[in-house]
Specification:
This protein is 41% helix and 17% strand. The chain has 417 residues and is α/β, with parallel strands linked by helices. It has two domains: 156 residues, Aspartate Aminotransferase, domain 1 (Alpha-Beta Complex); 233 residues, 3-Layer(aba) Sandwich (Aspartate Aminotransferase, domain 2), CATH 3.40.640.10. β3 and β4 form a beta hairpin. α3 crosses α9, α5 runs parallel beside α9 and α11 crosses α12. The N and C termini lie far apart (46 Å).
């Protein structure tokens, strides 16, 4: 049977498909020596216990249980959940949003698919694109567009720090925004690199969005307000040209598939309309499970007292292990850690590519994510840097970090031979 162009595109070798397939196979088969791939949040006992308690409360309430399991919510989302989100962001950041500013989707991935295609693509006979002001960017964006070649991206400035560290910064001189740009989008902190676009950089992007009357989309899956795994100096930004994306996944509920978008009412109404056509409604279980936690502010207490300290400890331990194990005489660099659950390793000047490094590590039971798929809008064959990086999930037990780092060190030395 013949597939449409859409069918061929969506069933092709997508980066996110490879990532999730490798993750699933690794977890289902023989346990790898080190599972540095994937984006699963760690299972933090204190978080699990709170969610278990909330589920027990629902189970004990026949009316709430029946509503959670048996009712469709509105296309916009569950009313009580939306009210709780509005209350939280206004309390934490004084954003002044109302229910009309919110749309709930079946996960952020699904939400971005709808949002990106709602804004970009063919528009009155002209092709419009999503601008990524800095790459690398989230692997899941790359294959979201119905129309191919719908991203334009800007290579970063790279600041080298010391012998084995670096940081990305937005190159505003290289940005060109014209009528073909439908929106500006970025993750903050950035998956995969852990880079955090500074408040000053964000203000400049916001001003560009206002000047060109386009939305600035900020994906805060790892950032503000929850789980808040982001450097303390980072502030929240919102105005009438901003769309904020939040997620329940990184607070420990990836299977709940709840994405939250906060933005201009007209765009949120359009997003809810598309969601109704594609999904009827968003999954209710995750919304019911956390509504009371969000309404009371307990989710922020959980983030600050449990989630953030857990990842701060994991990051510090992993940073020390990797810097100790990786060969000090070679020019590898880790991106400055500013947030997320990942390290981003750059093997500057390596003789082999990150895909080759990925294959080498996989053969030695260490799973990582090669960097080539994190550069939407770029011709990676023309840019060595895009073929020299890998993403490492550092939120693993100490013994796994130690064992994996030893193999990784051998592999990095192999990269330069």
């Amino acid at each position: 049977m013949q597939l449409s162009d859409f069918g061929k595109q969506m069933s092709s070798d997508a980066g996110i498909l490879t990532l999730m397939d490798d993750l699933g196979k690794a977890l289902a088969g023989d346990k790898p020596l080190a599972m540095f791939g994937g984006g699963n949040p760690a299972q933090i006992p204190a978080v699990t216990n709170v969610m278990k308690h909330e589920l027990e409360l629902i189970m004990a309430d026949d009316a709430r249980l029946a509503a959670m399991l048996g009712n469709y919510d509105t296309p916009q989302g569950n009313d009580h959940f939306i009210d709780a989100i509005v209350k939280l962001v206004n309390r934490e950041y004084n954003l002044g949003v109302t229910r009309d500013n919110v749309a709930v989707t079946p996960g952020s991935q699904n939400g971005f698919y709808m949002l990106f295609n709602m804004l970009a693509g063919q528009t009155n006979g002209a092709k419009r694109k999503i601008m990524l002001p800095i790459v690398p960017e989230y692997i899941g964006y790359r294959d979201q567009m119905i129309e191919p070649d719908s991203f334009v991206s800007v290579r970063p400035r790279i600041d080298k720090i010391g012998q084995h560290e670096f940081k990305y910064r937005i190159d505003f001189d290289a940005m060109q925004i014209d009528e073909s740009v439908a929106a500006i989008a970025l993750s903050r902190p950035t998956n995969p690199s852990g880079n955090v676009v500074t408040d000053d950089e964000l203000s400049k992007l916001a001003e560009l969005a206002r000047q060109h009357d386009i939305p600035l989309i900020i994906d805060g899956a790892y950032g503000l307000p929850f789980p808040g795994v982001i450097i303390k100096s980072a502030g929240q930004h919102f105005d009438n040209h901003t769309i904020l994306s939040l997620s329940l996944s990184k607070v420990g509920l990836p299977s709940s598939r709840v994405g939250i978008f906060i933005g201009p009412p007209a765009l949120m109404k359009a997003l809810s309309s598309i969601s109704a056509i594609l999904n009827l409604a968003s999954p209710g279980i995750g919304q019911y499970l956390v509504t009371q936690l969000i309404d009371s502010g307990e989710i922020m207490t959980l983030a600050r007292n449990e989630i953030q300290p857990f990842y701060a400890d994991r990051q510090q331990q992993a940073w020390e292990i990797f810097n100790q194990k990786l060969p000090g005489d070679l020019p590898w660099r880790l991106h400055s850690y500013e947030g997320t659950y990942f390290f981003w390793l750059w093997c500057e000047g390596a003789q082999k590519t990150s895909k080759q490094l990925y294959d080498y590590l996989k053969e030695h039971s260490v799973i990582v994510v090669p960097g080539e798929s994190f550069f939407p809008g770029q011709n990676i064959e023309e840019w060595d840097h895009a073929r020299q990086c890998i993403r490492i999930n550092f939120s693993r037990p100490d013994e796994e970090l130690e064992a994996g780092a030893i193999i990784l060190a051998e592999a990095v030395r192999w990269m330069y031979n």
